[in-house]
């Protein structure tokens, strides 16, 4: 297939003649419509690439500022604001404009991302960063069909193989948290985690389980409780653990928000931390530093994760080849005041 031109910009009609399909069919492929066979789509896309065709949105992007959309479930946590600060810092360095949006209205509209993806294409967005959302593969297809780069930070569910995700070494962090408590002498250690199906939660849980089993300690199912990553769940989770016939002497919380909930409930019940109960969080946010006592926590490089996500979107938008579709940055255990050897 060879496209010849006299210097004029390639048109959809010219692509249609070259591929032997109708101009409306070429238009459907350009706009990411689903009602085109895979064979026809592949043929048209190859012709578009060879001809150097650019959509109106792509031409606007080339002439104007680079804009990346960043979608959060909500910007109401230390986690979200720290990730956002990393994105904005790199955006300033790269002369990129950031447009903030939310994923909530998408789910309220039945999860249809087609119109959102088409708007991004029409307006020339360079790509999108999605923070922690549980978008399904079928939903992300709306962006893939339109060749819009998408990077997911800390996805709750594993994204499709060709969608880039950025996260931290959750398994290693979970193991480090449990090993710290084991080294202090604790043997009855509970895990208060987030949603059971969340990928990051599973990795932290398996790291915790690995540490216990490496010391010859069986994992007690009664000490593993799943909920959500909110402070309220830490309050509820501690109440459930204290109702057990044999209470834990230490808790590994799936994130700092859960740990803060545990601290509040422990204080309300007159339980001293760490004298009577040791506690480790995860994320390393300002919550950990500002809590009383200061919280031992596995620190995620949240700021760097935001920077890495934006850098990756920009590389994809330029057509660069990526070495990997999964970027993992190292976690680090930061020991503060909330952990100590068990009483007695």
Automatic annotation (TrEMBL):
Keywords: DNA-binding, Transcription, Transcription regulation. Residues 10-64 form the HTH lacI-type domain. CDD domains: HTH_LacI. The keyword DNA-binding applies. It holds the Pfam family Peripla_BP_3. The keyword Transcription applies. SUPFAM superfamilies: lambda repressor-like DNA-binding domains, Periplasmic binding protein-like I. Coiled coil: none annotated. It comes from the Bacteria. PROSITE patterns: HTH_LACI_2 (PS50932). This is Transcriptional regulator.
């Amino acid at each position: 297939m060879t496209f010849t031109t006299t210097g004029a910009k390639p048109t959809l009609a010219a692509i249609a003649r070259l591929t032997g399909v109708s101009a409306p069919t070429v238009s459907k492929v350009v706009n990411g419509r689903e009602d085109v066979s895979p064979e026809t789509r592949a043929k048209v896309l190859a012709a578009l690439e060879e001809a150097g065709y650019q959509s109106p949105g792509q031409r606007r992007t080339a002439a104007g500022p680079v804009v990346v959309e960043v979608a959060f479930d909500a910007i109401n946590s230390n986690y979200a604001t720290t990730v956002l600060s990393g994105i904005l810092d790199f955006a300033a360095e790269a002369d990129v404009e950031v447009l903030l949006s939310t994923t909530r209205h998408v789910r309220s509209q039945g999860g249809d991302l087609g119109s959102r993806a088409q708007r991004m294409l029409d307006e020339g967005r360079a790509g999108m960063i999605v923070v922690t959302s549980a978008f399904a593969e079928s939903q992300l297809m709306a962006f893939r069909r339109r060749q819009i780069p998408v990077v997911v930070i800390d996805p709750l569910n594993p994204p499709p193989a060709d969608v880039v995700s950025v996260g931290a070494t959750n398994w290693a962090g979970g193991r480090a948290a449990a090993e710290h408590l084991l080294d202090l002498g604790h043997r009855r250690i509970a895990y208060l985690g987030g949603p059971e199906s969340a990928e990051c939660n599973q990795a932290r849980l398996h790291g915790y389980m690995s540490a216990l089993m490496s010391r010859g300690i069986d994992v007690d199912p009664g000490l593993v409780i799943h909920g959500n990553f909110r402070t309220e769940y830490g309050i509820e989770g501690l109440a459930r653990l204290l109702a057990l016939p044999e209470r834990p002497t230490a808790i590994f919380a799936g994130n700092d928000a859960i740990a803060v909930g545990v601290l509040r409930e422990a204080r309300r019940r007159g339980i001293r931390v760490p004298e009577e109960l040791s506690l480790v969080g995860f994320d390393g946010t300002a919550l950990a530093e500002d809590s009383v006592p200061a919280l031992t926590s596995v620190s995620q490089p949240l700021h760097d994760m935001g920077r890495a996500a934006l850098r990756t979107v920009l590389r994809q938008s330029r057509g660069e080849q990526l070495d990997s579709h999964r970027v993992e940055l190292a976690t680090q255990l930061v020991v503060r005041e909330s952990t100590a050897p068990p009483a007695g």
